[in-house]
Amino acid sequence: MSESTWVGSMMTTKAFIADLYEMTKPKVVFLMLITAWVGMALAPLSAVSWVAVIMGTLGIAFLAGAGAAVNHILDEQIDQRMARTQKRPIATGRISTQTGFTFAIVLTILGMAILFAYTNALTAWLTLASMVGYALIYTGYLKRATPQNIVIGGLAGAMPPLLGWTAVTGEVAGLPLLLVLIIFVWTPPHFWALAIHRRDDYAKANVPMMPVTHGIAYTRIQIWLYSWLLLAVSFLPVALGASGGIYAVVALGLGVRFLQWSYRLLYDKQIDAAWSTFKFSITYLLYLFLALLVDHYLWPHTVTWFG
After folding, report:
1. What pLDDT score was predicted for residue 5?
2. pLDDT at 46
3. pTM of the complete model beyond 0.85
4. Rounded to whole angstroms, what are the CA distances from 281 to 184, 223, 275?
């Protein structure tokens, strides 16, 4: 093999691996893993095993990546019509559908094997259910069927804190379920802000997102209302004794800031208002969960049923 042929082969292999990596939606998976780590970190210290933490992270990441890969495959035609996604590996044909499915199956098998071997069956089955919920129920059906797709399907993306908790404890408890509820309520205003920003793309692809079916003005009202609901839900850990003053102050500040952004989106006609709201929503979730951790280790609690 000549040097030029070898170099060309290496570049092709590198590009193939990069395309497979892109199919796992690494940025989305990383955000999910952060919330899973919070679930692990909030678990009783006596229950935490570093093997479970490391291998649980790996298993959850593999199954989340598998779900993302299936999303690429099922959304091939949609992705081809949208500017944001038209250069994805499946949409462009750089990765074939058969190869994509094989990749997703391999990730699923590896993820399940790791979770069964190094964590517990509860975590394995819950993680698989989350993957199926996102890849098949949301992507395969809800996304194309109803403007409430992200509300109903958002539960799958809200599960990582519970998965992290069960990975190190082997049981379900109240605190991680509260975190699931927070992400579940956070998801609609987060995603609808993006949908407003990308409304023309979704319309072109015939995806019934709320800004397409009900209009941008109606969607702005929904984001505003959900922001109030999110503020209320974010205080449940305080009301139920699972967190203290540090978290309460941060949750209030972030919640008020989210309301400011959603209010600006409601009345501001600037073209980037939706995009700015979407970006802040990511910051909101990261800081809120960080505050939970800081509060957990620095503030005395009176937790009873949370563990």
Report:
1. 56
2. 73
3. yes
4. 13, 11, 10
